[in-house]
Amino acid sequence: MLSVTCQQMQDIEAASFKQGHKPESLMEQAGAGIAKTILHYFPNKRNAVAYLGRGHNAGDALVALRILRDLGWQVGIRCENALHELAPLTRRKLRELGDDFYYNQKRPEKDSIILDGLLGIGAKGPLREPLALLAGEMNHHRVQGRSNTIAMDIPSGINGDTGEVYDGAVIADLTITIAIPKTGLLSQNAVNHVGSLALVPLEALTPENIQPSQPRPLHLTTRHSIKRKRRSFDTHKGQAGRVGIWAGSEGMLGAASLCAEAAIRSGAGLVTLFTPPTLYAALASITPREIIITPSINPQDLLKSRFDALVIGPGLGSPVASLAEKLFAVIQETELPCVLDADMLNLIAREKRLDLFRKNTILTPHPGEMARIYPASEHFSRVPTADNFTSEYSSTLLYKGARTLVAWEASPIYHNSTGTPAMATAGQGDVLSGLIGGLCAQGYPNLEAARLAAWLCGEACQLALRESHITEETLTASDTIAHLAQAFDALT
Ligand SMILES: NC(=O)C1=CN([C@@H]2O[C@H](COP(=O)(O)OP(=O)(O)OC[C@H]3O[C@@H](n4cnc5c(N)ncnc54)[C@H](O)[C@@H]3O)[C@@H](O)[C@H]2O)[C@@H](O)CC1
Ligand SMILES: Nc1ncnc2c1ncn2[C@@H]1O[C@H](COP(=O)(O)OP(=O)(O)O)[C@@H](O)[C@H]1O
Ligand SMILES: [K+]
After folding, report:
1. What is the DSSP track for 113-175?
2. Within this chain, do residues 246 and 375 fall inside the same structural domain, yes or no?
3. Which of 54, 109, 274, 413 minimizes the number of CB atoms within 10 Å of its CB?
């Protein structure tokens, strides 16, 4: 969904009020959506404390808090403003929690949920007292109490238009933005304060007829903006997509195995993994039985079978020159959707074969690989890099990072909403490339496959963290695969 400035959001709100929508009804819908999102990621009852400012942002937090309390959560508030200073609607939402609620203020306990309802799109400039004090308290409890902070609409102390981070701004693990994403949330400067993103759509507030504020529009990929395919009843495995993978080398068998497993878990009907004959036995012992493993020394084999998509690169290492030439020839010849990942990108950079970045290819560089294939990226921030790169090359680009970007030619630059720092662990990229290949093989257009795969991987990891035996420290790429089903299920 297109992102908007705070002023554009306020104009859309004002227009909806003119049409007869009521602020209280919108606030109830926003609060209900926030509570639902919190329960999606934190399904077990906890202690929740809402930090309140004076405006309607606090009202959203109070509605969510009321819903959580009705479901048996222990809830409380922190507010340094006098009651009479609160906006009338916000005061009403506070009263609905009980007359004594304001006077029995609470601080978060260990492992709490902290709701940031200090400031939303009505914020002007850096945090002023008493909100600066409360933001400091929230950030302290988040670290000391290992609590999770969830920002209502935008993290307080962030400029919603530019993403500028003011002193003492709230650090959120998850920002639940209301109705339409605000452009500042997508800024790279703000990423450590925004965390992962979720959207609560409101029917009355949609971005129709809004002019993008940038020449290349910035969109957020959320669960609502991805369409999941349904199969017809008589689908057979040949129609469900055939993926050919060239991956792995001595010491990097796991990359090949994870990539192939993710491809079959994406829904692809048949996945074939080509491997040097010397690695066959070892790879067969760690790869799911559903994967066809074919010993091969010639990448041309990728062109001989009837595949619907190819993935080349995970764990490839540094192939000898003759193998490299054969891989280049395959990439040059194939018209299939072709994911080029990891060492394949390094190889292309090293041999200066950027002519291979054709329309059917999907490139998945992390910033290090990006600097090799496109040294200009070191002089630009992420969005201009994605913009310039896709203007120069006709490939679909998936530029990995804490806010993964996906773009193609003149498409909007899509910012992925899901993900967690727990993903900073080996093998996540191999899962991602396998997933993209599997989705392409099922007929998702390249851009859609890349957006969906990035969203699914991030969502799977966020959902994995709900489980008591998986933490930020212990999450592995295998856990990502194991939670893909829940991620698919979370799509509307
Ligand atoms: N208006 C509506 O119909 C809806 C509003 N919603 C929520 O309401 C929010 C906007 O509410 P408001 O317009 O009341 O604005 P805020 O809740 O952002 O509060 C703005 C008030 O905070 C104070 N303030 C501004 N900048 C400050 C600073 N730097 N330091 C300290 N105090 C500062 C001022 O008193 C200002 O009036 C949205 O972000 C969203 O969360 C949602 O409930 C959806 C519907
Ligand atoms: N802090 C983070 N927040 C969100 N996603 C992350 C974070 N760190 C890594 N990721 C994601 O994990 C994946 C890692 O890919 P990559 O670095 O290629 O891993 P590998 O090569 O080990 O498989 C990318 O999709 C990246 O976007
Ligand atoms: K907020």
Report:
1. EEEEES--TT--SS--TTHHHHHHHHHHHHHHTT-EEEEESS-TTB-TTT--B-TT----SEE
2. yes
3. 109
* Same domain as 290, residue 196: no
Residues 310 and 453 in one domain: yes
Q: Ligand 2 — pocket residues by CB below 6 A?
A: 342, 366, 400-402, 404, 419-421, 423-424, 426-430, 432, 457
116 touches ligand 1 (CB under 6 Å): no
227: confidence class by pLDDT, cuts 50, 70, 90: confident
**pLDDT tens digits for range 79-120:** 999 999 999 999 999 999 998 999 999 999 999 999 999 999
Residue 2 lies in a domain: no
The rounded distance, in Å, linking the Cα atoms of 293 and 281 is 10
Domain count, the chain: 2
State the pLDDT confidence band at 314, using cuts at 50, 70 and 90.
Answer: very high
Amino acid occupying residue 399: Y
pLDDT digits (tens, 9 = 90+) for 322-351: 999 999 999 999 999 999 999 999 999 999
Task: Give distance in angstroms: CA of 30 to centre of ligand 3.
Answer: 13
Task: Give me the CATH number covering residue 406.
Answer: 3.40.1190.20
Which residues span the domain enclosing 443?
A: 242-489
Q: CB–CB of 116/138 below 8 Å?
A: yes
Q: Looking at the structure, do residues 45 and 129 belong to the same domain, yes or no?
A: yes
Sign of CA pseudo-dihedral 76, 78, 84, 85: negative
Q: 53 C-alpha vs ligand 1 centroid, how far in Å?
A: 8
Q: Is 368 annotated as a binding residue?
A: no
Is the pLDDT at 492 greater than 80? The verdict is: no
Examine the fold and report which residue of 210, 230, 256 is the final residue of a domain before the chain moves on.
210
Check residue 206 and give its pLDDT: 86
Question: Strands 361-363 and 338-340: what pairing?
Answer: parallel
Query: pTM of the prediction?
Result: 0.96
Residue 345, domain member (yes or no): yes
Q: Residue 457 Cα, ligand 2 centroid: separation in angstroms? A: 9
> Is there a binding annotation on residue 124?
yes
